[in-house]
Write a structure and sequence with these properties.
The protein has helices at about 5-30, 45-95, 105-125, 180-185, 195-205, 210-265; strands at about 145-150, 155-160, 165-170, 175. It is mainly alpha-helical. A hairpin with a 2-residue loop joins strand 3 (about 165-170) and strand 4.
C-alpha cells in the first residue's frame, strides 16, 4: 500500500482534531467541576444522579412543609395558651362570685368582667391565620366558626364549622394535623365554654340560684380546660415530631449530596 503525502497529512489533522476535542472536553470538565457533561458520557451514573436529585428535591419540599407545619402549630398553641389563661381566670372569678357576702353590685361587676372574658374567648375561637383562614373551623376555613348569639337572654356561640382536620405532608408517610375543629377545643351545644360562661353570667345578673350556678360553672370550666390542655399536649407532641423529622431530613440531604458528589463531581487530580 502506498502512503501518500495527503494520507499522512490527513492523519495528522485527525490526530490534532482528536487531541483538541479531548482538551476541550477536559477544559469543560474543569470549568463545570463535573466529570459527566452529557448522559452519553456515563448513562448509568447519569440515571442514578437524576434519581438522587429528584429524591433530594422531594426531601427539601418535606423540609419546607415541616417549617409551615411548625408555624401553624405554634400559632394554634399560642391561641390555646390564651384560652387556657382565660378559663383559669374565669374560674377564679366564679369562685369569688360564690362568696355569700357579696352584694348585687359586686356580682354585677363580676358578670361584666366575665362578659369581657366571653368576648376574648370568642375572639380566640375565631382566630384567622396569615392567609385569612379560620384556625378552628375544620375544613370550613372561610366560615366564622363561632357566632355570638343569645337564647332566652343567655349568651352563647354555636359552632358553624365541621369536624375536618387540615393536614400537611411532612414526610413520605406522615400527614400531620395542623388545625383543629372548634368543637374539639371549645365544645358545642351543652358542653361549650361559651354556654358555661353565658349561663353563669345570666345567673349573676338575675341573682337566680347563684350557689348552684357556681357549682355548675366550675365543673363546666374544668371540662373546658381539660379539652384545651388535651389539644395543647397533642400539639406539643407534634412539635417534637417535626423537630425530629427535621433532623432526619438534614441527614438525608447530606447523604444525597454525598452520593451526587461521588456520581458527578470531577476528580481534579
Amino acid at each position: 500500500m502506498r502512503v501518500s503525502t495527503n494520507m499522512i497529512y490527513d492523519q495528522g489533522v485527525r490526530a490534532l482534531q482528536t487531541q483538541s476535542a479531548a482538551l476541550l472536553y477536559t477544559e469543560q470538565q474543569i470549568a463545570t467541576g463535573r466529570k459527566i457533561l452529557t448522559p452519553a458520557d456515563d448513562p448509568v451514573a447519569s440515571a442514578r444522579a437524576l434519581d438522587v436529585t429528584q429524591s433530594r428535591s422531594v426531601n427539601k419540599q418535606f423540609t419546607t412543609n415541616q417549617g409551615y407545619a411548625e408555624d401553624a402549630l405554634k400559632l394554634v398553641e399560642g391561641q390555646l395558651d390564651g384560652a387556657g389563661e382565660i378559663i383559669q381566670y374565669a374560674r377564679g372569678r366564679v369562685l369569688a362570685a360564690g362568696n355569700p357576702a357579696l352584694s348585687d353590685s359586686d356580682r354585677s361587676s363580676i358578670a361584666t368582667d366575665l362578659s369581657a372574658q366571653f368576648d376574648a374567648m370568642l375572639a380566640i375561637a375565631n382566630t384567622r391565620d396569615a392567609n385569612g383562614d379560620y384556625l378552628f373551623a375544620g375544613y370550613q376555613s372561610n366560615t366564622t366558626p363561632f357566632a355570638d348569639s343569645a337564647t332566652a337572654g343567655v349568651r352563647g356561640a354555636a359552632y358553624a364549622g365541621d369536624q375536618g382536620t387540615r393536614t400537611m405532608q411532612v414526610s413520605s408517610s406522615r400527614f400531620m394535623p395542623v388545625s383543629f375543629a372548634g368543637e374539639q377545643v371549645f365544645g358545642s351545644g351543652g358542653g361549650s365554654v361559651f354556654k358555661v360562661l353565658g349561663e353563669f353570667i345570666s345567673a349573676l345578673e338575675t341573682g337566680t340560684n347563684v350557689s348552684g350556678a357556681v357549682t355548675d360553672a366550675l365543673g363546666g370550666l374544668d371540662q373546658s380546660l381539660d379539652k384545651v390542655l388535651t389539644v395543647r399536649a397533642q400539639i406539643g407532641s407534634q412539635l417534637v415530631e417535626v423537630e425530629q423529622l427535621g433532623f432526619i431530613g438534614s441527614d438525608l440531604d447530606l447523604q444525597y449530596a454525598t452520593t451526587l458528589s461521588g456520581l458527578q463531581d470531577l476528580d481534579y487530580n
